[in-house]
Specification:
By secondary structure, this protein is of the alpha/beta class. The chain is built from 13 helices and eleven strands.
Length: about 350
């Protein structure tokens, strides 16, 4: 090949230098979701949102629900995320009073029962429902002929002494929900109210653990548990997980059952954190969490009920999950006003 003249080389070099640079591949926008450690959605649900909106969804776990809410409040001036998921009705008033959310009403709320919408300003959106209920070990109850509790007062039966394990309400979300169930059931009269009931449980040998995992897998005897207590505070849907992950996913009857006595309704919400610089994408994520496809994935992802009433439940839920006839509840503002005093009083009664 003949060498090119210097003039031609110079011209080619000039063209190269003046040619516009090729743009780098655009990086997807990052959207951050602050949530509790129990959050889980299938990859395909998250990837569908990311593909539709050209966004990279970063999930930021922040401990249990109480720790997550505290962190969101403490960082309200410089929010760690764009959206928060997992605040429930036991901590809702605290967050609303701290003004950490931007109002947003999702069109998908049309499919959500009105009783799940606890904030008229739509600062938070209901995503799922998880009822905290007593669970029993069927085999122990049948083998020993133990009396099946039909009401919370039945837990005071001497035949059930030392057979109940609960979580500390100061450190556990289901533990707090069960404490609230007793407040809702018995009221606050010092002589006949919830304090008297808990004194009775203490005298009947109630077992207390710091959290749900320690209670369910450590002290509870049923299903996956390795302990001796055949009654535990867990969830209405826990028996479903025992079947799904058990030896026979098609079992007609699982090793555990949830009881209707003293169930307390927990509603989990999502909200757009005030200060986000991506409010439209944050709103789109709320919509995605309420979309029928996402709601259908929730039962077997986190073992909760979807907030939407038009989503069919998996068959295993129909067979093994409890739907409480009349779950207990308290107004979030009442919970917020009484929570710390109730926990202190509970600690004095049960752990003294």
């Amino acid at each position: 090949m003949m060498p090119r003249p210097a003039s031609v080389v110079s011209a080619l070099l000039m063209v190269t230098l003046l040619a516009p640079a090729q743009p780098a591949a655009a990086q997807p926008t990052t959207l951050t979701l602050l949530t509790h450690d129990s959050f889980y959605l299938p990859d395909e649900v998250i990837e569908a949102f990311e593909a539709e909106h050209g966004v990279d969804l970063q999930v930021l776990p922040a401990g249990d629900a109480g720790a997550m809410v505290n962190q969101a409040i403490l960082t309200a001036d410089r929010p760690l995320a764009d959206v928060l998921f997992g605040i429930d009705n036991t901590f809702l008033s605290r967050a609303l009073a701290a003004d950490i959310f931007e109002p947003y009403r999702s069109p998908a709320l049309e499919a959500v029962p009105s009783e799940l919408v606890l904030d008229a300003e739509h600062r938070v959106t209901p995503i799922d429902v998880a009822d905290v209920c007593l669970n029993i070990d069927r085999a122990v109850f049948e083998a020993e002929g133990l009396p099946l509790p039909a009401a919370l007062t039945d837990l005071l039966d001497p035949a059930l002494a030392g057979r109940l394990v609960v979580e500390n309400p100061a450190t556990s979300s289901p533990g707090l929900a069960f404490l609230l169930a007793t407040v809702a059931t018995f009221g606050e009269d010092p002589e006949t109210g919830w304090q008297s009931f808990w004194a009775g449980l203490r005298d009947n040998g109630v077992i207390v653990t710091a959290g749900w995992e320690e209670a369910y897998y450590g002290s509870f005897s049923g299903g996956s548990g390795e302990g001796d207590a055949p009654i535990v505070v867990s969830y209405a849907t826990s028996p479903v997980a025992e079947v799904v992950f058990g030896a026979d996913p098609q079992a007609v009857e699982g090793p555990t059952a949830a009881l209707d006595a003293g169930c307390f309704r927990q509603i989990e919400f999502a909200g757009i954190l005030r200060g986000t610089d991506q409010p439209e994408l944050a709103a789109a994520l709320i919509d995605h969490l309420l979309a029928a496809e996402t709601q259908a994935a929730l039962p077997l992802a986190m073992y909760v009920y979807p907030a939407r009433s038009d989503v069919a439940l998996p068959e295993v839920f129909e067979r093994h999950a409890l739907v409480p006839a009349a779950p207990l509840s308290l107004d979030p503002a009442v919970i917020d006003a009484g929570r710390e005093d109730w926990i202190r009083a509970w600690t004095d009664i049960v752990l003294r």
